Structure formats: C-alpha cells, structure tokens
Amino acid sequence: MRFFFLTLILLGLNSSFALLEGIMAALASTKQGVYTVIIGICTVGFLGGIIFTTDTGLIFIDTIDFYMNYVVLFLGFCKALSTGWIYGMSKQVQHLGNKWNIVYMYFGTTFSSFLFASLVWFGCKGNTFWLGLFSLVVIYGSGICYCSYNLRNLVNEDNSLSMKFLRNELLMGNINELRTELSSGDGGDGGDGYYYLPWTWAFLMKHFIPQALLVLFINLFFAQTDYGTIEFGNYNGYEIWPYQFLGVSTVLFVMGVVFIGVLNSKLFDFLVTDPSLLKKKTTGTGILDIAGVEMEDRTNNDNMNNQDDGESKFNYLYMENLEKKQSEMEMNTINTTATATAVGGYGEDTTQKATDGVLA
After folding, report:
1. pTM for the predicted model, two decimal places
2. What is the pLDDT of residues 179-220, one digit of tens each?
3. Vertex 22, ends 54 and 5: CA angle to 5°?
4. How far apart are CA 62 and CA 276, in angstroms?
5. Which among 42, 66, 230, 321 has the fewest CB atoms less than 10 Å away?
6. What range defines the domain where residue 17 resides?
7. Rounded distance, CA 360 to CA 106, Å?
8. DSSP state of 267
C-alpha cells in the first residue's frame, strides 16, 4: 500500500515536470525571468491543488475532469483548423488569381455544413440522422459547385491554367506547402533537416480531423443529464457554487484567451522569443488587418510588375520603330539606285550621290 501511494506521488511530480518543460523550453532563449515564471506557476499550481485535498476534493476532480473535455476538443479543433486551413491561405488565394471569394466560400461551406448538420443531429429531438446528412450534402455540395464554377471561369480567362491545378490548389495547396516546409526544416536541433510526413497526414489535417473535432464538440455540448437538461453547467447534479462555476469558468477562460488572440494577436508578442519573427508582424491588430496588409503587399508587387511590363513594352515599341525606319531607309536606297540605273547616263557617280542623299 505504501508503494502504491509513493507511485502516485511520483506520477504527480512527473506530470508537473512535463508541464513545466514546455514553458521552460519556450523561455530558454530569452534568459530573462525564467525562474520567476517557473516559481509563479508552481506557486499557483500548489495553491490551486489544495482544494483537491479537502473533503470535497473528489467532486472537484470529477468536475474539472469533465469540463476539461470541452477545453481539449476546442483547442484541438483550433489547432487543426489553423494548420489545415488558416496557414498559407493568402498564398493559396494568390495562386487562384487573387479570388478571395473562392477560398472563403470553400472554407465557409465546409464548416457551416458540418456545424449545421451537428446541430440537427444533436440539438433536435427525434431521429434526425438523415435530415442532418441531407443538410450536410446540400450545403457542402452548393459550396463545391460555386467554387467549381469560378475555377472554370479562371480557366476560360487564362488558357495557361488547368482545372486540375486549380482544383488541387484549392483542396490541398496550403497544407501541402506546410508539409513540405516541415519535411525540409531542420527542427532547430541541427539534424539532417528531414522529417518525413506522409500525404495521409496532410489529407487528414485538411479534410477529416477539424471536421470530426467540431462534430464531437457539438455532441459533447448537447449531452444531456438523466433529467433532460444539458450537462454543460449541470454536470452530475453538483451545486452551481463552487463546482459548476469552476468548471464553466475554466472553459470560458480558455475560449476567451483564444478569441482575444484572434482579434488582437499583438497582446501575446511577449511569448515570441525569436525577434526576427516580430519583424514580419504588421501594425494591424488582428487577422483582418494582417490579411489587408498582405493584399496591399501583393498590390504593390503587381504595380511593380506592371511598371516593368510598361518599360519592356516601351523598349519593344522603340526598337520596333527603329527597325522599321531602318528598313524604310534601305528600301528607299534600293529604289533610288534602281531608278537612277534605269534612266542611264549617270553611272556609278550618280548612284553614289543618290545613296548619299538618302542616308543624309
């Protein structure tokens, strides 16, 4: 029995080390405030863990364990969404002829279809499987038809583009680019710089994992107790204060941190330990501002390309006119020479004078 509890103590210490190692690795390059942060986290964790040693400690553990499922599914969905869809979206738009409507429509219809179907499946009473499946097919199919129609228009406008290239770029372009970068990166450990990622990883991160996590999150949110109420905020019939309040506030706190980062990412710049990464950040405060700056950069690049094209066109026209004038001069010389020879009596001196007059 003593060895059993000793094992539990060692397991808790091992978990604490594992949680702190990630924070220490992130702060290791700064060499500033590492020990202060570690001491602060350990102090807060120790004080927060005292509540689990009380008579109602098991209820607290059960409550936190249940509400952590919401946090895990939500964070997993956000990570999969940012990896499979948000990353490289600006380049993906640029490859599709700067048509934001195509990428946004595909993104919106994909997740709106799964969201609406999940609400039908788990939020409505009765057997709603086929109704949810029908709504999923209709919404997702309408988005695919819209994107295919616009891709076909791009092919008609530019014959150098192929439908296969545009379709592959829309479906897998950004995640394949991330897969290539991760496979060719050195990982910061000075290794051989190769980490193999199969194509199935890219496919699942794009077309399966975020959609599945969204469905699981909606399913958990609409889970009901034995009394027919939603378990979120009513788990296991525990009292609202302090059990339900602690669990719900934990979930809302994590969601709030994520949404604040989406709206104003500069608030978390202090967590970036590589100063070179901050140089790429703009003066904007959120995703929309960053996207606007990217569009402005592409506009400036397009203007520079247009200026180059204008200069090349000007040089081409200038050379064409010069060659045309030279050809006319040569033709006039030949015609004048032929005319003088046909009249006769002038000889070579007349021909030479005529030629000199034309050249002059």
Report:
1. 0.69
2. 998 887 654 444 455 678 899 999 999 999 999 999 999 999
3. 35
4. 44
5. 321
6. 1-53
7. 68
8. G
Query: What does the angle CA 117 – CA 123 – CA 129 come to, to the nearest 5 degrees?
Result: 50
Asked, for residue 29, whether it belongs to a domain, the answer is: yes
The beta-carbon contacts of 82-87 under 8 Å, at least 24 apart in sequence, are: 83/175, 83/178, 83/205, 84/174, 84/175, 84/205, 84/206, 84/207, 84/209, 84/210, 85/174, 85/206, 85/210, 87/174, 87/175, 87/178
Does any domain span residue 22? yes
The count of structural domains within the chain is 1
110 residue type, one letter: T
Asked if residue 230 is part of any domain, the answer here is no
CA distance 135 to 118: 10
Q: Do residues 251 and 68 lie in contact, with contact meaning Cβ atoms separated by under 8 Å?
A: no
Q: Answer whether residue 9 is part of any domain.
A: yes
CA distance 151 to 101: 11
**In terms of C-beta density within 10 A (0-12 exposed, 13-18 middle, 19 or more buried), how is residue 318 classed?**
exposed
> Which of 150-160 are b and which e, b meaning 16 or more Cβ less than 10 Å from the residue's Cβ?
bbeeeeeeeee
Report yes or no: 82 and 182 within 8 Å, Cβ to Cβ: no
pLDDT tens digits, one per residue of 145-180: 999 999 999 999 888 888 999 999 999 999 999 999
